[in-house]
Every structure is written in C-alpha cells, then in structure tokens.
Amino acid sequence: MRRRSVVLSGGGGGRQLTPSSSSAGLLDETGRSAGRTVFPTDARCYRLLHEIGSGVSAVVYRAACLPLDSSPVAIKSIDLERSPAGLDDVRREAKAMALLSHPNILRAHCSFTVGSRLWVVMPFMAAGSLHSIISSSFPVGLPEPSIAVILRELLCGLSYLHAQGLVHRDIKAGNILVDSDGSVKLADFGVSASVHDSGQLSSFSSSFLSDMAGTPYWMAPEVIHSHVGYGVKADIWSFGITALELAHGRPPLSHLPPSKSLLLRLTSRLRLDDAQNYNPAGGEAEKKKKAKKKFSKAFREMVASCLSQDPSQRPSAEKLLRHPFFKGFRSPDYLVKNVLRAVPPLEERFEGPSAADGSGRWSSFSPKRRRVSGWNFCEDAFELVPVYPEESLQRVHSGEDEEREMLIKDSLFVLLGSLGVQAEMAMKVLQCHRGKEGIVERLREEREKQLLGFAGSLEKTVGDLSSELQREKKTNFELQLELERLTDKQQQ
Amino acid sequence: MKGLFKAKPRTPAELVRQTRDLLVYIDHNWNTREAKREEKMTELSRLIRELKSILYGNSEAEPVYEACAQLTQEFFRENTLRLLIICIPKLSLEARKDATQVVANLQRQQVHSRLIASDYLEANRDLLDTLIFGYENIDIALHYGAMLRECIRHQSIARYILESEHMKNFFDYIELPNFDIASDAFATFKELLTRHKSTVAEFLAKNYDWFFAEFNQNLLSSSNYITRRQAIKLLGDMLLDRSNAIVMMRYVSSKDNLIILMNLLRESSKSIQVEAFHVFKLFAANQNKPVEIVTILAANRSKLLRLLGGFKLDKGGCQFIKHA
Q1: Which helix (H) or strand (E) holds A306?
Q2: Pick from B305, B309, B310, B306: nearest CA to B323
Q3: What would be the CATH architecture of the domain defined by A128-197+206-349?
Q4: Which residues of B touch A196 (CB under 8 A)?
Q5: What are B100-129's pLDDT values in tens digits?
Q6: How large is the ipTM?
C-alpha cells in the first residue's frame, strides 16, 4: 500500500505513528503510547479460538494475540454489511471505547477492518457476562451481598461515564462482564450517545437524545416517551432494572412480550417483587419457595429510588454510591469465592449456532441470478458480446449453500435499497405533479388507512392491558382488606 | 451556590489567565522535578474542567451567557488557544478530553455577535496545520480531529485547509490501520467537502484533476472495504449536490470514471452497489454522453439490464440505458 507522508515506526505491527511535535514518550497513564501494550492491527496476528457470544450482526471470539505471547483477548467481529447501525454509529462506538479509561469500563485495545467486518480487540473477561453467569448457575438470582459488590462496581463505571457526558443507554446483565479475578466491567457501547456531541451548544440537563435505543425490558419510561428527551437518568432506571434482574434472575415484566412490557411500564409502578410474582414457568411450589426470598430494606429502597417515574427524582450514580446499601462493601474477591466458583467455564456455557439456523428455509424465496462477472470496456475493438467466464458458473455448483445464503442477504438488501429508491421516486413524482391532486390524495388515503390500522391494534392492546389492570387492582384491593383484617386481629 | 462560601470566587477571565500561566509553565518547564510537575498538572486539569463546566453547564446549572462571553474574550485575547493545543500531548487523558470540549465549544461562542474564534484562527493558521498533523500521532489523533472538525465550521478556515497542501494528506489518513482514527479522518474529510457549498464547488473546479485522480485511485479503488463504501457514498453526495453541477457534468463525461463506477456496481457488498448505482445513473442520464460512454453502455446493455433488474430498482434506470 502506498504511504506518502505518514511515517510509520515502532510497534511490531507498524501501528505506532511517530509523534510529530510532542513528547508523548514521557506519558504514562494518559494516551495509548508508552507503558501500554500496543496491539497489532493485523488480523494475521490473532488466532480465533472459540466463539463466546453472538448477536444479529456481530460475533465475539476468544482469541490469542500471537505476537504478544498469545495473550488472551476477546474480539468482537461486526459485520458492517448487516449492521443495522450506520457507519457513523460504529465510528461513535469505536471513538467512545478508545477514549474511555476506567477500571469498570471495558476499553478496546484497538479496532481495524478485516474485509467487510470490523474487529474490535478487547480484554478477555474470563467469567463472561452476568447474564450468562445467572442463566447457567443462578436461575433464581444472586445472593444479596454479591449483588452489592457487582452494583457498586457498576456504579463506579456509570458515574465515570456520566461525568464524561456519555449515556450508555443499554445497561443490563448481558452487558456487564466479569473477569476471573472478580473485576466487573461495563461493556457494549453500541447505542451509547454523547450529550456533548449532539450538534448544538447543549448542556447536561437540557440534552435531548430523542431516538429510541436500548432493550425493551430495561428501558426507562422517558425513553419510551421519546419525545420528552432523556439523559443520564435513563441509565439509572436501567440500573434499577438490572438490580432486579440480578436479584431474581430475570428483569421484571419479562414474562410479557416486549411491546406489552413497554406499555405497562408507562401505566404502572414496578416493585421489587414484580419479577418474582410472575413466574410462568415454575409451578406453585416453586413460586412459594421464591416468594420467601428476602431482601434487605436498604436494597429495596435503593432500587425503588432508581425506578421513580420522574427522572429528576432518581438519584445520580454518584449519589447512589453513598447509599447505605453499599456501606461496608466487599472487594471483588468476594465474587470469586461466592459466585465464580459455581460457574462453568465460558466455552461450556455458550452454544454456538446450530446447523439449522434457518438459512435453508429462506432459500426457496430467493430467485437465482447469474452474477455479472465482468464488464466489457471495448478497450481494443467493438466487442458487443458480454463475457461470462466459465469459473463463475462452476462456483455455483461447488459452493451452492454459500451462494444461496449470499442471495438471501442480497435480496434483503436489494429490497431495502429499492424502498429508498422508490421513496425518492415518489418524492420526485410529487414534486412534478404538485397540481395533480390525485396522486397526493391516493397517498394520503393509503397513509390514513395504515394509521387507522395502527390505531386499531393499539386500541386493542390498551383494552387488553386495562382489563388486566382492573384484575390486578381487584386482587390488590382484596389483599389490602386481608392485610387490614390481619392487623386488626393483631391489635386485638 | 457553592461559590458563596469561598474566599474569592474566581471570574471566568481569571480562570483563563491562571490556565494560561500554568500552560506556559508546563510548556517551558517540562523537565522540572516530578512532584512539582505533578502538582501543576493536577491544578491545570482542574482548571480546564472548570472552564468546561462554565461553557457547558453542569448537572446543577445551565451555562450563563455573560460568563461564556467573558471566558471566550479572555481566551482569544492572548495565545491561550495556541498554548492549549500545543500542550495537549502532555495532558492526562481526562484533561485532553475536557480541553477538546472547551476548544470545540469556543468555536461557537459569539461575543458581540461575532465569532471571534474564526478571526483568531485566520491570524494563526499554523494551528490548523498542527491539528491536521495530529492524525499522525495515535495518542492525540482523536482529540485534534474533534477540534479540527469544529474549526472548519468557519468557512474561511475550511477554505484555507481545502486550498492547502494538507488536503493530499487526508487520502493517507483515511487508510490508516486504526479504525477509530481512520474513520475520524474520513469524517473530517467529508465535512470539508460538503459543509460550505460555494467553497467546495470552487475548490473542486480549481483542483479537479488531481483531486479526482486521487479520489478514484486511492479511495474508490482502495483494497479497504470501509474506504470504498465511505468514498462512493461521499462521491454521490458531492455530485448530486446542485452547487456542484458543473463538476458533476465533467465527472460523468469521463470514460475512466465510468469504468470505476461499473466495477463498483459489481461489488458483492449491497451497500456499495446501491451507492454506486446512484452515481452510475448520472452517467446514463447525461444528455450529452460522449461516444465512448455510449459505446460502453451499449456493449454492456444486456448485462446492465440484468444487474439492475436484480436490483429491483425503478424503471427509470432501465429506460436511461435503452436510450443509450
């Protein structure tokens, strides 16, 4: 590759650039130079060992960095062709991860592209995410002292993040990683947003981040009401939900489909026992056993304060750290002895994608197409016959499955692309025929019909929900009566 | 208010002066005793954070116009901005981030409805050179990059960089191996070529030959997927902008350009294909197509139709080709 004025020096992978006029060599905890290990930005320097997680457009591997004595790393490989986030979002995440430096925040060693994938090289957190720890070994939740250790570490990271003007927007057990020494780090800045980056002179309290992001069960009411705009306090809500998740093994309302849980969130208050009251899977006996699980008053108060409907009523991360619940906190060592010992190794927990991942199912829908193998640029003479080299036809036979998968992917993207084009066309048509009411009318009619459909389905859900609410209220009332009777008896 | 009980609350201007004194000290006495330096650095970091909270506000208070104006005026009255930029590599990571936000914010502060940052930068253009060369230093690239993007909000500053030799450096920075730095450089490059329409049109007209030669060869034909994907999108944005109509006509009249675009159409990446189509259709739609372009389009007509048919794009595209 051609390099004109960029001087490359140092660092095995040719990564380190010479500081131009600085004395960066003197730095210690500051930047990425001196004192810090430089990780190579070349895929050949890493050996992928095992898949330890996967999402819609990303896979996470345990890997070894060969030039650094095969030291363990985690590599998140993001498929940029399939990533729902635009390149700008990916850039923002990479930048956020490169500029954060805190013991409770997972920082990237480096990131670079490999074909159409982005590799983000990160420290390997041997014990995996809390979600995987809970689901493999603590299905009904962790004991309270361990929760306190984890939440305290998490708050330290969160408080740092918020001081930076960053909102994480996706706090949940699945994004909290634990290392074999019990250290806890917050990860995955896929949806994080900066309150400073948003264009105008914005300040902390008046920041308006109005796009939807996050995972439904952990989402704060004002994120759902996205027109209100939300700030760092949305993370505090998710923090509270995460506390419940750790306590009960699942977030509250998770027995409902995500969209329903969103609506319910807007109308009701969550309590600490919400998560345990609903247990669709377990039988009566198990329910009773679980209901006995007791939590301290400090813990319940702490969580309740985070789950206040009014964001301004929620304490800041800084303030939460001073809450009595975290008094006399234990060191991460405690986690090693009380949690990690019970957990199987990461590789055994993760089940890679099975062979039947549905690609066969879809293949019948995609039309077969011959790929264009080359253009004819008439460099020498007029050659009007298109060229179809033999090998491209042969490949169709040899790698049929691969081809099929590509075709599915392709057709999906084509669909996406053509939608955009159609929208553009429609706009043009509209502009040309501003006078012709007919088209406009038709479009409006169509839109209205769609809206009516939406409204209808919404109405139905609201109806369902309110009847559910009524039922709840009734039981609540009965319980209250019962309680009163009991207290009366006691007094007597 | 916190300041109420302090002996003497410092005014924004005083804060700036203290910051400047410390910067001067650190710039000149870097090799002093470590303990002493440490102490000064801590104080400096604290001051920069305080400046930041005046400009952005904090969890308790919104920024106050008068305080911001006072701070801005004092900042540009002497060489504080220069000192701060030069000292960035010596600051801790947190202080660097604060300083970056301070510098970014100052670009938008108006004093007596004037952007005095713009005047200052025009008189100190070498600072922009420093910021651009920041891309060559992995430790400060993202900080200088963010400052630079704020500076080119000023049209005259963007014009200076467009017309400087540094424009050529961006073609290398965009291909740096570190994704975070390379993509930051691209963001700046894109901003330079799209933000100020009239300046961009003027630049492209004057520098057409070398610029598009570099663009075609190093970006559109890069071996790096990200570079190609970002570049083809940017090319579309530039050519489809009405203010660049003349440049667009010139671009779509070249056979070499058409070849590059048709090769991008064949990419396995749908994102690249779709963006390439948006540029390709301009070649086909051109009313005065040169003969060689007509010839190529005619020679590949059936293949193009098949490809575009697969795209399920609009009929318009196909009609263009039938005209060819």
Answers
A1: helix A297-306
A2: B305
A3: Orthogonal Bundle (1.10)
A4: 56, 101, 104
A5: 999 999 998 888 888 889 999 999 999 999
A6: 0.88
